[in-house]
Amino acid sequence: MYATGDKLEKNDALAVQWIRKAVEQGYAEAQYSLGVFYADGKCLLKNKVEAVKWYRISAEQGYPPAQYTLGGAYFVGWGVPKSIPEAMQWFRKAAEQGHAPAQFILGVIYFDGRGVQIDTEEGAKWLRRSIDQGYIQDFKFDPSFKGENGNPKDEIEGLAWFIIAAERGDKNSIKIREAIEHRVGPEVAKAAKERSQQILRKIRTVKY
Q1: What is the four-CA torsion angle of 144, 150, 152, 153, rounded to 10 degrees?
Q2: Would you state the pLDDT for residue 134?
Q3: Structural domain boundaries of the chain?
């Protein structure tokens, strides 16, 4: 409440104080929130290692947002050594509890083979579950989605996902899609559009 300013004046220092009290009582949500404070540097010195420590403590209690965030840390090597298998383990734990962002990122990883063997059936299954909850976009764990590394495959695959998200009304994805299309030109944009349609056809036919 203090951290969000909901009904009370926003006060990060007081929020940390109350979160620590909840942490001492073993509340997983508070443990996760403390990790966020360390990650963001709010009233606490920014500390990746401490952030990941509290994400892990919360995740081990089964809190899906913590499991998802810990998975992301392992996926890119943020505060921990990069480990795709460890990332997939935590993404899956969150996804199996119905956490839509985890379902989505898990689906994309399988669908595109980002650090794992491509498995379009498994990828489509998780994407369908995510989309059925109205969720379609979260690319913060992998900057190659924007195709900024010069890899043509990443340009097409990345843009395809932004097209899907944009066409479902995600405002941020609309802006990013336009920027990428301007940079890559009409041929890549056309290929990405075709790829997005291929992905959607696959997702629509999968059963779970």
Answers
A1: -30
A2: 76
A3: 98-208
